[in-house]
C-alpha cells in the first residue's frame, strides 16, 4: 500500500489513512498527532535506514575503486589490476541496491543478476588476459541455471505463472545469446552454447505445451509464432 505523507490520520478499525480528523467509513475520531500513529514512524524509519545503507554502500564503493585506481597508477601503471577490484565492487553495489534492498519482482532480480554477473565476469576475464573463459563456459551455464531457477519457481507456484511469463520469455531469449556469440566468433567453444540454446528451446516448448490456453496465446503473441 502506498502511503501519502500528507495523510496523517489512520483508522485502526477500517485500516485506512485519511487527511480528515475522523474516519469517513466508521466516523470514529482520529488522532491529530502523527507520533501517536505507530505505522508512520516505523515506515519512515525503514525508508531512512534503507537510504542510509544505500548511501553508505555507494560511498564505500567509490572509496574502494578510487583508492585502488590511484594505487594502481602510482605503483604499476602498465598493469591495470584495479579492474579486479572494479568488477566485484560494482557487482556488490548493484546487488545490494537492487537484489537485496529493493522490492523488485523476483523474476526481474534473476534477470538483473544474470546480466550484471555476466558483465562482472567478462571484466574479470578481460583483466586476466582475455582467455574468454567467461564467454565460453561461465555465462552460458549462468543463463541455463537462471532459467532453471525461474522454472522451479513457476512449478512450485503455478498460480504465479502469469507473473513470470515475461521474465521466462526473457530468459528463453537470453538462452540463445551464447549461440549468437559463437556464430559471431566471439566464442569458439560450441557445446556450452549449444546446451544453453537447447535448454532454452525445450523450455519454450514446455511453456507452449503445458500452459493454459490464455497463457499459450500470450506466449504465441510474444514470440510471434
Task: Describe, in plain words, how this protein is organized in 3D.
This protein is mostly helical. The chain has eight helices and two strands, in the order E-E-H-H-H-H-H-H-H-H. A two-stranded antiparallel ribbon has the order 1-2. A hairpin with a 4-residue loop joins strand 1 and strand 2 (16-18). The longest helix has 37 residues, at 39-75. It holds the Pfam family DUF6320. Keywords: Membrane, Transmembrane, Transmembrane helix. This is DUF6320 domain-containing protein. InterPro entries: DUF6320 (IPR046283).
Instruction: Indicate the overall shape.
Output: flat
Radius of gyration (CA) equals 24 Å
The major β-sheet equals:
2 strands, antiparallel
Strand order of the largest sheet: 1-2
Average residue-wise pLDDT: 81
Strand percentage lies at under 5%
Q: How many strand elements? A: 2
How far the N terminus sits from the C terminus, by CA atoms, comes to 39 Å
The percentage helix is 55-70%
Number of helices: 8
Stretches where pLDDT is under 50 for at least 5 consecutive residues are none
Assign the structural class, choosing from mainly alpha, mainly beta, alpha/beta, alpha+beta, or little secondary structure: mainly alpha
Order of helices and strands: EEHHHHHHHH
Protein name: DUF6320 domain-containing protein
Organism: Ornithinibacillus sp. 4-3
Keywords: Membrane, Transmembrane, Transmembrane helix
